[in-house]
Amino acid sequence: MTPDNAKNDSRSDRLRVKKTSNTRARAGQARKNIYQSTSSTRPAVVSRSSMGRLTASKSSNRPTAREKMEVAVPFGLSEGTRLRVPSLALDLGDRWISGTIAIICAVLLFVMWSVEPFIVHSAKLVGNERLGASDINAVLGVMGKSIVLASPEQMKYNLQAAFPELKDVKVSVGFPGKVTVRVIERKPLIAWQKDSKVSWIDADGIAFPPRGAADGLIPVLALGDPPAIETDPNYENINLMSKPLLTPQTVQALQSMLSYMPEGTTLIYEPDYGLGWNDSRGWKVYFGKTTGDMSMKITMYQAIVDNLTQRGISPTMVSVEYPNAPFYRLGQ
């Protein structure tokens, strides 16, 4: 072996030894890094945002619930041996919270539906004059039921449909089982009789069944139905169910005729001739549907009656509805 060859072999041996030592050092460092990463660091958490982007965040270095449950039990093992005992991790999550809330709501609804304090037995009535609480309770539709079924709008509709004499109705509901009804009743002015049926009429011309007693009513004998009245489109906002039988002007005319009507007579209404009365001398007199120029009409009527009496004529009907064209009728 030449000196050059020996020199090359020794250099190769040194490089081989150096390479082996470097490899062992790197392996040791790698094992160290792996141990440190598993004991002191956490993997990044990747999540998707509302915009669809992926974001990564480092988890906390604090031990998790699973690691907290690790216990050390002496089993006579060699020093440095770690024994991991399985643990039970209880994670309720949002679904358990939602389910609990749903169960609580169901229980509360059942209580409000069936427990006695939430059952409506009677309504508190405020502002009534002739209507009684029993009348109101009979049509509300919630007596003996849970307050959760009570609809103020529906109860208001029921009351206005059943009682046209109610000018205004307000219904309020409270817990546990409280219903309050505030009403304003119409004030009757006229006792309107057609055939054998009597209705009361207020200043707005609204007709409603008599209830209780009322003083100072003007009796009117109707010989036919008045013409239909076209109401304003916004009238439904005043009263949902009631429609006027007479116009307010006709009601005012009936009231004003009292001062001209002979004592002991009864006002009458005839669709073709309007308002008048039965004269005690045996005929009917009509003054039209309004009381305009009533003084002049009374004077003209008296003049016609005097003329007919002087001539020995007994009419069955006299009309001064039109002062420029009065007339009378003989016989039927």
Can you give a write-up of this model?
The protein has 332 residues and is an alpha/beta fold. It contains 7 helices and 14 strands. The strands form 3 sheets. It has a 9-stranded mixed beta sheet, covered by helices on one side. A 3-stranded mixed beta sheet has the order 3-5-4. β13 and β14 (327-329) form a beta hairpin. The protein starts with a helix and ends with a strand. Mean pLDDT is 76; it is low at 37-41 and 65-71.
Characterize this entry briefly.
The protein is α/β, with parallel strands linked by helices. The chain is built from 7 helices and 14 strands.
Please tag this protein with its features.
about 325 residues, alpha/beta, Ubiquitin-like (UB roll), Rossmann fold, nine-stranded mixed β-sheet, three-stranded mixed β-sheet, 7 helices, about 20% strand
Topology of this structure?
Elements: H1 3-40, E1 44-48, E2 54-58, H2 65-68, H3 93-114, E3 124-126, H4 133-140, H5 152-162, E4 166-174, E5 178-185, E6 190-194, E7 197-201, E8 207-208, E9 218-222, H6 248-256, E10 267-270, E11 274-278, E12 284-286, H7 294-311, E13 317-319, E14 327-329
Parallel strand pairs: 3-5, 6-9, 9-10, 12-13
Antiparallel strand pairs: 1-2, 4-5, 6-7, 7-8, 10-11, 11-12, 13-14
- Counted beta strands: 14
Helix and strand run: HEEHHEHHEEEEEEHEEEHEE
CATH class of one domain: Alpha Beta
Largest sheet: 9 strands, mixed
